[in-house]
Design a protein that fits this description.
The structure is a single chain. By secondary structure, the chain is mainly beta. The chain has 3 domains: about 40-80 and about 355-500, Sandwich (Immunoglobulin-like); about 90-215, Immunoglobulin-like (Sandwich), CATH 2.60.40; about 220-225 and about 235-330, Sandwich (Immunoglobulin-like), CATH 2.60.40.420. It is about 10% helix and about 40% strand. Strands 23, 24, 25, 27, 29, 30, 31 and 33 form an 8-stranded mixed β-sheet that branches. A hairpin with a 2-residue loop joins strand 29 and strand 30 (about 435). The structure holds CU-O-CU linkage and copper (II) ion. Copper (II) ion binds near residues 419, 472, 474 and 482. Copper (II) ion binds near residues 477 and 482.
């Protein structure tokens, strides 16, 4: 072996080592900067986006994981409560337990129950009622909470562990109080380890009736759709559920999608109308036949139909041919067989236009929520992760607004998968999809399916101060990091993700 050969070999080793270091240092830096501490404030994570608005306290917010100290005069989310005084019109106690749940059709599933059942009890309020719900955690390990999905409650009542409260530990309790201001179909669910607790059954339906009851004289069917393990159900029952309704009777079916994927629902045997979406009535909804309604994960739709005068039944399909369905008609009436549901009604052009009540062209802030997918590290895990505006969790946006701002947001998706995007505390109007302006009824959403390749323009008024989650409602995606926040200037949260309470909202 010659000396020069040895030298060449050692040169190669050195060059190889240098190359390895040159590669490992940035990769190591990316890895290290992706790590999420055991305890942190959402006020300190990621980066502020101002959307063209003024700089304020929040713009300096990425001062490490604690966030900036509150400014004098700032409000804590704990102060943004519903009415603390006054006796409630609706007073419910919900006891959460880890339990073997027996479905109404007899099957048993390992999961969670509220007052011994899943779904939990239907909570019903009249518009203007003061609602009080006492959550008692008997045996949900790691704690639990209740989030009022679609109800634009004051921030302290929003039920997001680590953002608006601490998770309620076993043996603990928490009281929620809020005014039921907007009639409609809503639901409640845990927002602590929600991707497991909701799937496991920790949810129920909340219906707010209009103050004027005469506006509401139909037969009503409340239809939360949920899959327990591999068992698809409606209102806790598998298969076909029959509901006796006289011929010629108007019926309102409140469909709630509590699952992680989109639900296509369609009444067969009668035309129908989409009366409301996400708790907001549509204006002049026209009759629909041979078409479905696509309800995003977390979303709701109220379907209106009249049972046929000839005494036949209507089948409301809640998914494909093998999915559960409702059969509405006189006792013993035959219903048409299940079909392959039709294409979804395009809510962008359904119903008649009407005023939104604010001018989305006069926006104070304009944001982008662009969902992609790219390789990198999230909390030290290498992989192909969801990105928001090109960056990976925990480097997610904090969208900063002032109270009273008109806010526009472009929500676009180029990630290869559908994402049902859910903004807490607000309803947003859909203005356009892929450049095509909305031409139908005002379409207000709290949860919007954004398919890969689509771009939606939405707008809302920032009229509910707080720190609000804005995440994908395919809950495992949120747990994977598809979550951002909307923060009002001058509001801060004393709660922490992780920490002593073990808060883990997603
Ligand atoms: Cu239905 Cu953030 O949740
Ligand atoms: Cu998603």
């Amino acid at each position: 072996m010659s000396r020069s050969w040895n030298r060449r070999r050692s040169d190669r080793v050195v060059i190889g080592l240098l190359a390895a270091v040159a590669l490992l240092v940035p990769v190591g830096w990316l890895w290290a900067s992706s790590l999420v501490p055991d305890s942190y404030s959402v006020m300190g994570m990621g980066h502020a986006e101002l959307g063209g608005g003024p700089e304020g306290g929040h713009s300096a917010h990425a001062l490490g994981w604690d966030g900036p100290p509150p400014n004098p005069g700032d409000v804590a989310v704990t102060e943004l409560t519903g009415p603390r005084r006054g006796s409630p019109d609706v007073d419910v106690t919900l006891v959460a337990r880890r339990e073997t749940v027996t479905l109404t059709t007899g099957e048993t599933v390992e999961g969670f129950a509220l007052n011994g059942s899943s779904p939990g009890p239907l909570i019903r309020a009249r518009q203007g009622d003061l609602v009080q719900v006492t959550l008692v955690n008997e045996s949900v390990e790691g704690g639990t909470t209740l989030h009022w999905h679609g109800v634009d409650v004051p921030n302290a009542e929003d039920g997001v562990a680590g953002v608006t409260q601490d998770a309620v530990p076993p043996g603990g309790r928490h009281v929620y109080r809020f005014l039921a201001e907007d009639p409609g179909t809503y639901w409640y669910h845990s927002h602590q380890v929600s991707h497991e607790q909701v799937r496991g059954g920790l949810y129920g339906v909340l219906v707010v009736d209009p103050a004027d009851v005469s506006a509401h004289d139909e037969v009503e069917v409340v239809a939360p759709v949920h899959t327990y393990g591999s068992l698809p159900t409606v209102a806790g029952a598998t298969g076909e559920s029959r509901i006796d309704v006289e011929p010629g009777t108007p019926v309102r079916v409140r469909v709630v999608n509590t699952d992680d994927g989109p639900l296509r629902t369609q009444p067969v045997g009668s035309p129908y109308r989409v009366l409301a979406v996400d708790g907001r009535d549509l204006v002049d909804p026209g009759p629909v036949t041979d078409a479905s309604v696509q309800i995003p994960a977390g979303g709701r739709a109220d379907l209106g139909l009249v049972t046929p005068p000839d005494g036949s039944a209507v089948r409301v399909q809640l998914g494909g041919e093998a999915a559960p369905s409702l059969v509405l008609g006189p006792r013993g009436a035959t219903a048409p067989p299940a079909v392959t549901v039709g294409p979804p009604v395009d809510l962008l052009s359904y119903g008649a236009p009407a005023l939104l009540g604010f001018d989305p062209e006069a926006a104070d802030r304009s944001f982008e929520y662009s969902i992609g997918r790219r390789p990198g590290f999230v909390d030290g895990r290498p992989g192909l992760h969801w990105s928001i505006n090109g960056r990976l969790f925990p480097d997610v946006p904090m969208y900063v607004v002032d109270e009273g701002d008109v806010v526009r947001m472009t929500v676009e998706n180029h990630s290869g998968e559908l994402h049902p995007m859910h903004l807490h505390g607000h309803h947003a109007a859909v203005l356009a999809r892929n450049g095509v302006p909305a031409s139908g009824s005002p379409w207000w959403v709290d949860t919007l399916d954004v398919a890969s390749g689509d771009s939606y323009e939405i707008a809302f008024v920032a009229d509910n101060p707080g720190i609000w989650s804005d995440h994908c409602h395919k809950l495992p995606h949120a747990a994977e990091g598809l979550v951002a926040h909307l923060a009002y200037e001058g509001v801060h949260t004393p709660f922490r993700i992780g920490g002593a309470a073990g808060n883990e909202p997603e």
